[in-house]
Design brief:
Blueprint (H helix, E strand, L loop, with lengths): L12 H22 L4 H15 L7 H12 L3 H10 L1 H18 L9 H10 L1 H44 L1 H8 L1
Helix pairs in contact: 1-4, 2-3, 2-4, 2-7, 3-4, 5-7, 6-7
Length: about 180
């Protein structure tokens, strides 16, 4: 029996992830700089996108980003990009925010099993909100209390990063406008 064939090249997961990050995150942000976005504007937009992207109300992030972008005159590309990149964190942090909120406001814990949540929601939104609304609002309160300062800190860090990128890419950015 012949030996199984192997692929002619090895795929390094680190290089694969790094390539994805460059292609799907870094390049679009650099392109925004090339098109005239300021480092400060991109930093604010990404920070707001990250904060909104981890809020504990599933399904609300895109519309909240659109509203924040319109109200704050933020960069929609950077907002939505940051929002989508942190989606896995939203799923991880949702129970953390809710449980902290329940503890902080001394609420009885509700089940956070996805199957149970879907079943409860299918009985009707009003019944669902009566049962889970308090815990959801408590989670939102914790998210706001932690997210606002984290957003300001993140914006400061991102501002320095985008300024360095703009300086490093300055000649390219300047040349592309001529």
């Amino acid at each position: 029996m012949p030996a199984p064939r192997t692929c002619c090249f090895a795929v390094d997961p680190k290089n694969l992830a790094e390539g994805w990050f460059r292609r799907r995150v870094l390049r679009p942000l650099l392109e925004q700089l090339r098109q005239g976005a300021t480092p400060e504007g991109l930093a604010a937009s990404c920070a707001v996108g990250v904060v909104i992207g981890v809020n504990p109300i599933l399904g609300s992030t895109t519309i909240l980003c659109v509203a924040a972008g319109a109200l704050g005159r933020l960069n929609h590309v950077a907002l939505q990009l940051a929002n989508h990149v942190v989606y896995p964190l939203e799923l991880i942090l949702l129970p953390v925010f809710v449980r902290l909120g329940e503890w902080l406001f001394r609420l009885d814990p509700v089940p956070l099993n996805p199957v149970t949540l879907v079943q409860e929601f299918s009985t009707g939104p009003v019944v669902f909100l009566r049962k889970f609304g308090g815990s959801g609002l408590a989670g939102v309160a914790v998210w706001l209390a932690l997210g606002v300062p984290a957003g300001f800190l993140g914006a400061q860090i991102l501002k320095s990063i985008f300024r360095r990128l703009a300086k490093r890419k300055g000649q390219e950015i300047h040349d592309s406008r001529e």
